[in-house]
Design a protein that fits this description.
about 60% helix, 23S_rRNA-intervening_sequence, 23S_rRNA_IVS_sf, S23 ribosomal protein
């Protein structure tokens, strides 16, 4: 169950809903989840942008970006597969951490000259969706 606060005539009301019940009739597989599909796109974009990085970064920043970005859809699918809203929520939180980690690695890469802000602009925008 997920709690959400809403204001009702000046009073705070907590509303609960089950993540797994939300449009589950349309979701037959984790690959049907829009959030997983977007995560896969981000990971793919990260793989392409890091191909341009210097070879000496293969086991440094390239590896960090690829691991953190691939962790986004991986945690979404793993959480979905747990079949419990509590576990799913926990894995979504882990995926959000991977989003932040990926953004940090990309921004640092631009700051130290491994890429330009233009190279990563689309990925950064997708991470913020």
């Amino acid at each position: 169950m997920v709690g959400k606060r809403q204001e009702a005539k000046g009073k705070s009301v907590k509303i609960f809903f089950d993540i797994k019940d939300f449009k589950m009739s349309e979701i037959k597989d984790f690959k049907d989840l829009i959030i997983w599909q977007k995560g896969m796109e981000i990971a793919e974009q990260c793989y392409f942008v890091t191909k341009k990085f210097p070879k000496e970064e293969l086991y440094g920043m390239v590896l960090q970006i690829r691991k953190s970005s691939s962790s986004i859809p991986a945690n979404i699918s793993e959480g979905y597969g747990r079949k419990s809203s509590r576990d799913y929520k926990r894995f979504l939180s882990i995926a959000q951490g991977s989003v932040n980690e990926t953004e940090t690695h990309l921004l640092l890469s631009a700051r130290v000259g491994l890429c330009t802000l233009k190279d990563i602009e689309t990925i950064i925008n997708n991470l913020k969706e």
